[in-house]
Amino acid sequence: MRNFRATFALVHGVVFLFAVAAVPARAASILVGAPNVGSSFYGMDGADIAAEFTLSGSEYVTTVDVLLLGGGGLYDFALQDSLSGSITTFASAVFTVPTSGQNTEAITVDTTLTGGAYYVVGSKNPADTVPGWWLSDGTYVTNGGTVANGEWSSTSLSGPWSFTSASVQSGYYAPAFTVNGSATPEPSSLLLLSIGMVGMAGVAGRRKRFNHTRRGSMPRLSTITPAPLTL
Question: What is the arithmetic mean of pLDDT over 200-225?
Fold first, then answer.
């Protein structure tokens, strides 16, 4: 009976672990963004530009991609939680853009961001001249949050910043960018994993106690005396 219980518990734990593997996790994908390039760009030689997005909850962000117009020069980019006041910068990068075409550049983030508003801020390097940041076509990806339908601009990173909405000023869509996240376990997967591990630990404990008891109570063969048979 004890062997049966131990075997049943072992199978039970394994079933839970297989259930964890069967629960789908979110595949690596675009969490939010404006991935499609339109037909024009925001000039950055005399202005700093920012795109705003909001995450609905905590997400592990791997990179933020921005689509820049070629023309040479250096771009400075940062991912931050505000445009004024106390600013936390989560990642930054400097890009040297080729002389022509549409160029996708990646800001490496590799951190978990909590739910809330964030800004992808782009500016020209003070010692250089750059063309600009492509506009999107107004099609937004909202798997993990929302994208502000417009663009922030300022003549200085310290502000003041002003927001131009595409719903007010036609064609002023968000700059082209994507916020990318890696696969993460869903809460249900984590729960199943915990239950499965507890079950496996319980099996190990029961088997250890059972083996110890069996070894301690088993009489040695040399001490066994056959009982007499009675007709």
Answer: 42
